[in-house]
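hiii so um. not sure if this is the right channel but i have a protein structure encoded as tokens and i wanna go backwards to a sequence. like what aa goes where. can anyone help
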């Protein structure tokens, strides 16, 4: 990278300035790193997670606007969370859920099914429970 390139990069406008990002599963791992990146790009961040202590630490780490501790696999809790959001939401990232590692064809059928569907179903559930505070559909649907 040349000095001219780095000077231009340093002067660019943050990509998420003035936007609000919700990270479902934002207290650790990929979710927490996503929250860090969103904050670095100027976004306000709302974190959710199951573990209240870990969520509290993550919120301090990224200066989260708000947190909510609940199990995102519980549709009622997920719906309540979205209904109670006071501000418009620009982006929702779903990283919650259990990881299932290994080749799906080598897993017991139930574990493979759960691994392949858990995040998709949580994302679809998030989509269907969003409040009017969410500016756009997760999938760009109207």
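sure thing!! here u go:
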């Amino acid at each position: 990278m040349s000095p001219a390139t780095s000077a231009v990069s340093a002067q660019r406008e943050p990509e998420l300035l003035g936007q609000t990002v919700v990270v479902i599963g934002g207290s650790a791992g990929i979710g927490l790193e996503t929250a860090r990146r969103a904050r670095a790009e100027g976004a306000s961040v709302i974190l959710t997670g199951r573990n209240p202590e870990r969520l509290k630490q993550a919120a301090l780490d990224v200066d989260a606007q708000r947190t909510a501790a609940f199990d995102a696999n519980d549709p009622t809790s997920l719906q309540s969370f979205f209904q109670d959001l006071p501000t418009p939401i620009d982006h929702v990232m779903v990283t919650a859920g259990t990881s299932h590692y290994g080749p799906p064809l080598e897993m017991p059928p139930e574990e493979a099914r759960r691994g392949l569907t858990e995040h998709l179903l949580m994302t679809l559930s998030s989509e269907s429970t969003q409040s009017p505070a969410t500016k756009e559909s997760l999938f760009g649907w109207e």
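oh and The mean pLDDT is 79.
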